[in-house]
Amino acid sequence: MNEITLTVNGSVARVVVPARRLLSDCLRHDLGLTGTHVGCEHGVCGCCTVLLDGDPIRSCLMLAVTADGHEITTVEGLAGPGGELSPVQRAFHESHALQCGFCTPGFLCTVTALLRDNPAPTEAEALEGVSGNLCRCTGYQNIVKAVHRAAELTAEETGPDDDEAVR
Amino acid sequence: MTTKLFGEPIPRREDPRLLVGGGRYLDDLGPGALAAAFVRSPHAHARIAGVDVSDAVEVDGLVAIYLWEDLPDRVGEPLPLLIPHPALTHGRTAHPLARDVVRHVGEPVAMVVAVDRYTAEDVCALIRVDYEPLPPVVGPENAVQGSALVHADVPGNVGAHLVQEVGNAREAIEEAEHTLAFRLDVERSASMPLEGRGVYARWDSGDSSLRVYTSTQASTSVRMAIAATLELPLPSVEVVAPDVGGGFGVKIVHPWPEEILVPWACIRLGREVKWTEDRREHFISSAHERAQVQYVRVGFDSAGRVLGLELNILHDHGAYTPYGIIVPIITSTQALGPYKIGAYRVEFQSIYTNTVQVTPYRGAGRPQGVFAMERTMDRIADHLGLDRTEVRAANFIQPSEFPYDQGLTFQDGRPLIYDSGDYPASLELLKSLIDWDSFEERRAEAAAEGRRIGIGLGCYVEGTGVGPYEGGHVQVTSDGRVHVSTGLTSQGQGHETVFAQIVAEELGVDISDISVVTGDTRRFPYAVGTFASRAAVMSGNAIALATRKVRDKALRVAAEALEADPGDLEIVSGIVRVRGNPTAAIPLKTVAVLSNPLRYAFDAEAARATQFAAPGSPDEPPLKEEPGLEGRDYYSPIRSTFASGMHAAVVETDPVTAEIHILRYVVVHDCGKLINPLIVEGQIHGGVAQGVGGALYERMAYDEHGQLLNASFMDFLMPYATEIPRIETAHLETPSPLNPLGIKGAGEAGVIPVSAVVASAIEDAEGLVISRMPISPSDLYDLRLAAARGEAERTSRSAG
Amino acid sequence: MKPPAFDYHAPAGVDEAVEILAEAGAEAKILAGGQSLIPLLNMRLVTPGHIVDVNRVAGLGFVEAGPDGVRVGALARHSQVERLPELRRVQPLLGQALRLVAHPVIRNRGTVVGSIAHADPAAELPAVLALLGGSVQTRHAAGGRTIPAAEFFVGPLESALEPGELAVSVFFPALPPRSGTAFAETARRHGDYAIAGVAALVTLGPDGEPERAAVACVGVGPVPIVVETPYRAGWDGAAEAVAAAIEPEDDIHATAAYRRHLTGVLAVRALGQATEEARG
Asked: A57, C105: Cβ pair inside 8 Å?
């Protein structure tokens, strides 16, 4: 057994895990953060995508022990401190970019990082940005729409002073 | 806030919780439960000679191992055959754990319960099963030869044989001016929701009650099955479908073995037990669909009118038939589409093979039937040198001809009578949206650039909202909240939103006061399930009827309190008032209090309500009808309502690499009155995407040994965003005359014609006859080589 | 789909890592990015007695571009290498290939050295290393060695690495003068392993015409297939040379014949693009 320390959604968590515990299972079952979903456990579907030190990764393809000392953001950590939905979350709602909701946390984490690195993606960039996540319900059209809508919402909130930086 | 919500594209009410990780899917429940895992057969067909658990029992954390022999009589019996049919003369279902023989790779042989899933899998790896391989039967054409048998007592591997005929099709074909005959193939795919199946059971030994959570499309029926199999009183069993991460048909089958075994083990062990299906299990133990070999013979006149059609189907139903022969029956009946076919004969054989069982996957036999009919229409057009849309138009049922009786028996056992539709208008809209008439110019432009493009279309009619019934319950409580429940389940269709829209509109309350619960037998114990594009039609109408009961009662009670005539009252934003006299008003929540003669002042509303309470007559009992402002009602249609749609696509095929790209995809859809256009569009997008998967990417690749070669998301090619074209949609709204809301189902629609449409467009681009789907670049390349050798059929247009 | 139990080691330095590897021998698997290893563990297709997690080993997360080429440490992630500003100038083929490796999320975690060591003949990076004539630097308890690419790839998922040996870095030689590169591939879905793929390197003569050209082919043999491709007023001869050298097989995604055809087409395309690049 290994004692590890993770900073998850801004809170420090100490947890004792066997070496083989997948990060996805650690988040879900040891820390109770069940918003991170597990759809294939071989790294293809993207449901388990979380942010590791800010970058999206597959939590089913990482041992929890390897994540010791790192910062993790899950879907539970995307909303604002008062629980207000993030621009990406609001855009998904407005655009009807989710149906059963199972793949949604992975998309939200992926898109959050995508827009941080590229605040105004082109159509091709938006498509490429979500192309590593499977969704069986939506046909993706509204997800791509939500990426653009989230970019708009973020730009609106960033305000005119930051426009230069955005584009 | 407006209460006019029916037809409005309001964003979904289930989203806020799903967007913050607040969904409760099966594996999110029961954090302390024991974990189950299964030893599954690695052989397609084998006799179990023995099972050695001697190493397995040494594992720390093991709680129990169960084999078939360990199951009590009732639990060990074969699983039920849900939908028997006289033509299914040799129906066979599996035992929850294999008894003596395994009949497909993935069939469960042993159940392991341990402290966690990791340990349970460790134990599974140490259980040694001694298999004596038997000859595997793979592919329906091999199977029907009968040289090896899946079930020793099913000769020729034929489970069912059914012929339906209207008129004398063979004679009509013989006498027709033109005839064509050809073969069509559709390969296997699967529903493949991103959340697999899962079951979690809790037993309360204090009161001997069982609660089971299962990722199902039919919680009420799972409850009945568990109670019957475990011999528990029905009131002691509750079944809840929590948030379900997609279904698409595979979760309508019930009970799955695990839905019996997990609750049984839970009671036996006195501990909570949970099983969460993993992706590999899902590939080899949950159901597949689509595989059919179809032979068409058609006779037609020079205008392209079909005079006689004969369809012969070899349906591969895998190792077992728990869901009967619904899929080939649907193919048989829905192949007719929007057309008047002079005489029709359809015959199918449903064949056992040593592969995963086949049960409905979104579309449920319709994609295959539409593939048969639409390929036929294209062949007729090509044969006669007519435009493909002209041939279809020549065969359409006209708007004046509804109700139109196709003369067959549909999946619900009722006559196949179409209720309404406007097929010529659909086709005109489709043609204008895709610029059908100017396509030759675009083809020429593309050709000038060395590019090869083609256009195709496909039409379908979908029987939706099959019975027998659904129910709804609506209750207004003294806090003004409106609680709505229905028994059928949700897997992403937005029921919490659309049912609330219906209630808001019918009752005159703000949608924010309404909450909707589905799939929880504690709230509504009677239901059929969510499948066959039936939820909105069935539960939507049932809830509307229940709401009308509540409204009537509210008006009666309010009228008494206001000393008015119920007919003069209206409900606006939760206030009952006299039309034209807004001061004479009473809130619905007060009416809720008044609806119960016993009103202890638990809340302010109850205290306040006493002022309205009319003194009862001393000669009458205080309770005149059921207490409470609530209503329950059921909707039971005389038969299905028939939605329709037409799709068209422009594809580009690379002349060198044979890669296939969909450049445009257009959908015209008619599901009657739309409750929420946003949600209907979402359903269409998702359906088309699954259709594109089935047309170009997805197939279950079994080898001759019955091994599934691509049981992972790496090799079973579900499309990503990059593989799905932008989908352009337009709606017609031809109301259904059959139900109070005038609606038709929309859930499956998108997927149904896609293979036919894409095949039509590729055929048009290539000038090569396409008769097998899905088609990959490698397949198209091979087809081109075959054509170069004179071994593949060219269209007349290209040959000419 | 949960990994089997194993003994876990998280060495802090290379010396410690190779000591552990020496002791564990063939029972050990090295975990870096894990994007290939962990799926195999989850499916229990491999059941190593020991996992040596090198993610905490100091000094392996580097990527350096110099005049000779690009050296990538064992912990440099694909995305980190992709972002290296000098990459386009020093060795553009590496960036061209990295963009085709799976999806961005996988590239955030997967390592270049891990991909090379995994020696999947369908993967892009082994082809790049083979085409450029790069090398793999290793350490083991008794020292270390440099393995040339030509000797490194032995068979499908099989490299020249011995038990106890840790690949610490790989070296991709710089682009020669008057040269250009390209990577062309066709996959069933965007981001999938290629049905066929071709990396090309073209060097122009003083007359501006291709003087030397070679390709490395992906997914059509047990290892990346490197072929010298002559330019004879066009690349037709190149397509023939490629078709003669590769050994494609049928699988569920494509026939051998299609792969052979496609590889020829892609070779011509990649060589053409590389020539354009060389001409700048």
From this structure: yes
Containing structural domain, residue B212: 32-134+191-285
CATH number of the CATH domain containing B536: 3.30.365.10
Same structural domain for residues B560 and B677? no
Read off the pLDDT of residues B502-515 as tens digits, 9 standing for 90 and up.
Answer: 999 999 999 999 99
Considering the domain A87-166 in this protein, what is its CATH number?
1.10.150.120
Q: At what angle do helices B366-384 and B388-395 cross, to 10 degrees?
A: 110
pLDDT at site B411: 87
Q: Are strands B178-186 and B772-773 parallel, antiparallel or unpaired?
A: parallel
pLDDT of residue B611: 63
Do B381 and B261 lie in one domain? The reply is no
Joined together, the tokens standing for residue B338 give 């929007």
Q: How many CB atoms lie within 10 A of CB B616?
A: 12
Quick one: closest CA in B to C263, which residue? B657
Residues of C with CB below 8 A from B722's CB?
189-191
Do the beta carbons of residue B508 and residue B3 sit within 8 Å? yes
Tens of pLDDT, residues B471-527:
999 999 999 999 999 999 999 999 999 999 999 999 999 999 999 999 999 999 999
Residues 6 or more apart from B510 whose CB is under 8 A from it?
B1, B3, B504, B573, B574
End residue of a domain, out of B635, B657, B684: B635
What was the pLDDT predicted at B782? 97
Residue B734 CA to its chain's centroid (Å):
23
Quick: pLDDT tens for C174-207: 999 999 999 999 999 999 999 999 999 999 999 9
Domain locations in chain A? 2-77, 87-166
* Alpha carbon distance B623, B502 (integer Å): 30
The answer to whether A140 contacts B721, with C-beta atoms less than 8 Å apart, is: yes
Cβ density class B20-33: b for 16+ within 10 Å, e for less: bbebebbbbbbeeb
Instruction: Verify that B661 and B603 share a domain, yes or no.
Output: no
- Is pLDDT of A164 > 50? no
Do B672 and B782 have their domain in common? yes
Q: Which of B82, B148, B175, B66 is nearest to B114 (CA)?
A: B66
Q: How confident is the model at residue A165 (pLDDT cuts 50, 70, 90)?
A: very low
User: What CATH number was assigned to the domain covering residues A2-77?
Assistant: 3.10.20.30
Ordered by where they begin, the domains of chain C are: 7-53 (3.30.43.10), 63-173 (3.30.465.10), 179-279 (3.30.390.50)
The answer to whether residue B659 neighbours chain C at the CB level (below 8 Å) is: yes
Residue B141 belongs to some domain of the structure: no
Note the pLDDT of residue B1.
41
Assess contact for A112 and A86: CB atoms under 8 A: yes
Does ipTM exceed 0.90? yes
C2: closest CA of chain B, how far (Å): 6
- Quick check: is B625 in a domain? yes
The SS3 of residue B202 is strand
pLDDT tens for B558-602 read 999 999 999 999 999 999 999 988 889 999 999 999 998 887 777
pLDDT at B70: 98
Among C30, C31, C77, C103, which would you mutate to test the A interface (most chain A Cβ atoms within 10 Å of its Cβ)? C103
My answer on whether B585 and B623 are in the same domain is yes
Mean pLDDT for B435-439 is 98
Q: Count of domains in chain B?
A: 3
Does A2-77 match A87-166 in CATH topology? no
**Do B630 and B748 fall within a single domain?**
no
Kindly state whether residue B305 falls inside one of the protein's structural domains. yes
Q: Pick from B125, B701, B720: which is nearest to C191 by CB?
A: B720
Query: Inter-chain contact A20–B718, Cβ cutoff 8 Å?
Result: no
pLDDT for A160 beyond 80:
no
Any chain A CB within 8 A of the CB of B681?
yes
Cβ distance B778 to C2 less than 8 Å, yes or no, reads no
